[in-house]
Amino acid sequence: MFVPENLVDLLQYLDSHQAGVHLIANGTDLINRIQRKQVTPKTLVDLTGLHEFRYVKREGGTIKIGALTTISELIESPVIDSRYDVFREVAMKFGGPSIINMATIGGNICSASSSEDLLPVLLVLNADVKVRSIHGERTIRVEDFVKGKRITDLKPNEIMVETSFRELEARSACSFEKVGMRNSLIIAFVNCAVYLRLAENKLCDEVRIAFNRVNGKIPQRARQTERVMKGKKLNEQSLSDTVTTLRNELKLTSDFRASEEYRLEVVCAIFKRTVGRCADRLAGEKILV
Amino acid sequence: MSKHLLKFSVNGKDYAIIVQSHERLLDVLRDKLGLKGTKEGCSTGDCGICGVLMDGKLVNSCLILAIQARNKKIVTIEGIGSAEKLHPIQRAFMKWNATQCGYCIPAMILATKDLLERNPDPTIEDIRRATGGIICRCTGYLKIFEAVKTAASEMRSQDN
Question: What CA–CA distance (Å, rounded) separates A199 from A44?
Fold first, then answer.
C-alpha cells in the first residue's frame, strides 16, 4: 500500500506506477471486492489523507462537493439546504450510519457499479466531475464519465477531486426514490431520480429522469419519457400517460435481485412517487395523490 | 506486503505499532491490542457488529484498513465506562435486559453514544435509524430501543 504524504506525492506516484494500482478511500465497496477476489490490486493507494477534498461549498451559482466528502458530511453541510433534500433521500436509503459515515461521494461515483445511488441524482442535476493528474485538471460531464458497469473515464494517472452542479433555479426541484430489501444497507432493485422545472404557467418546462439498475449496466436517462412530459400540465392523467411511455422505453432485465416484471412495476411506482414529491416541493402542498 | 508505522489513539491511549498493508482495523484492535470487545460478524459491512467510533463517528472496523486509522481517535467498547463505574448507556442496557446473546451490544452501545452526542432527545425513529445498521441476531430490538430511550433521559438529567 502506498500512503502519500500529500497530493503532489500521490499524483507523481500515480504517474509513474500505473499497473495494478487501485485507489482506496474508505473501502466500503473495494474491500468487499478484494475479499471476493473480484479485483486483485498489486498496490492500493490510500486517499483518506487528502483532507483538502472534503468540502461542500457554493461558488458562483454552483454547488461543489469534494470527492472525499462522506455522505454524512454532505447531508450535514449547511450548503445542502432543504431544496437539496434529494441528498437526504439518498442518504436515508444508502445505508446505516456506519456506512454513510464512511462512503465517499468520489467512491460512489468512481465505483460506477450498476446500483450506485448518487449517479442518477447527479445525472438529472447535469453534474460534472473534475479529475486531476500531475499534468493538470479536466472536467467531464457525469454522463460521459461513467462509461459502463465498473468503467469510468478516469485514466490510471488521475484521481477524481470534485463533482459540481448548477444550483436549482426557481420553480425547480429534484427527488430520489429507491427500492431494495433493507433501508440500512440496500443494494437497490431499482432507483429513480427526477429533476422537474415548471414554467410560470405551471406546465412542465424541463424534466430529467434517470434510473439505475434498470438495465443492469449503467444509469440511464429516460429521454423519450422526458420529451413526452415536457409542456404538459402535471395531473393524474398526464402522469398515467407518461408511465405508459416509460414502460415502453425502459429496457429491463431479470437478475438474482429481481425479475424483469417486478422491476417494471416498481419502476413505474417509484417514478410516480418521485415526480409527485418534486411537484409537492414546488407547490408547497400536495398536488398529486 | 508492505509494513507501516501506525500511530493512533485508542480509548484515549496513544499507540505506535507496525501493521501490514492488508490488516484491518478490526484485526489490529482485537489481535494486536487485545481489545476483544469489538466483535467480527459478516466482515462485509452488512451487519455492523464490528462498529467502533472513529473521530467520534460510528464506522465498520472490518472495512477499514488499519493504516487508514493513522492519526485518528478510536473508541471501542472498552473505552466506554469501567467495571466500577458503568456508562449510563451500559446501565440502561442492563436495566432493560437489552442484551440477549450480547454479540451486537458493543456496537449498539457505541451507536447509541454516537446518536446521543448529536441528538440528546431522539425520537423512536431516530433510534431505529441510528441502530439500524447493526443486526441483532436475537432480534431483541425492542428492549434495545427502550434502553436507548432510558439512557437518553438519564444523560439529559445528568447534564441539567
Answer: 50
| Dihedral of the alpha carbons of A75, A186, B114, B14, in degrees to the nearest 10 | -100
Residue in chain A closest to B72 (alpha carbons) equals: A49
Q: Which CATH number fits domain B88-159: 3.30.420.40, 2.60.120.10, 1.10.150.120, 1.10.1760.20?
A: 1.10.150.120
Q: Does domain B3-76 have CATH number 3.10.20.30?
A: yes
Cβ-defined contact of B43 to A46 (cutoff 8 Å) = no
Superfamily name and number for A172-283: CO dehydrogenase flavoprotein, C-terminal domain (3.30.390.50)
pLDDT digits (tens, 9 = 90+) for A222-239: 999 999 999 999 888 889
CB A271 within 8 A of CB A209: yes
**CA atoms of A33 and A48, how far apart (whole Å):** 19
DSSP string, A103-114: -BHHHHHHH--T
DSSP-based three-state secondary structure for B117? helix
At A118, the amino acid letter reads L
Give the residue from B20, B59, B119, B135 with the most A CB atoms within 10 Å of its CB, the best one to mutate: B59
A13 touching B (Cβ < 8 Å): no
In terms of Cβ atoms closer than 10 Å to its own Cβ (0-12, 13-18, 19+), residue A202 is middle
- Closest residue in B to A30 (Cα) is B63
Is the predicted pLDDT of residue A185 greater than 70, yes or no?
no
Task: Say which range, A237-241, B71-75, B78-82, B94-98, has the weakest mean pLDDT.
Answer: A237-241
How far apart are the C-alpha atoms of A184 and B127, rounded to whole Å? Answer: 13
Task: Say whether B53 sits in a helix, a strand or coil.
Answer: strand
pLDDT at residue A278 is higher than 60: yes
Where b means 16+ CB within 10 Å and e means fewer, B27-65 reads bbbbeebebebbbebebebbbbbbbbbbeebbbbbbbbb
Q: Is A185 on the interface with B (CB under 8 A)?
A: yes
Backbone angles phi, psi at A78, to 5 degrees: -65, -20
Say yes or no for a CB contact (<8 Å) between A27 and B65.
yes
Q: What is the ipTM of this complex?
A: 0.94
Q: Which of B93, B92, B56 is nearest to B75 (CA)?
A: B56
Ranking A199-203, A252-256, B142-146, B147-151 by mean pLDDT, the lowest is A252-256
Cα–Cα distance between A246 and A223 in angstroms, integer?
9
Question: What is the Cα–Cα distance from A188 to B94, expressed in whole angstroms?
Answer: 37
**CATH number among 1.20.1740.10, 3.40.50.1360, 3.30.465.10, 3.90.440.10, domain A52-166:** 3.30.465.10
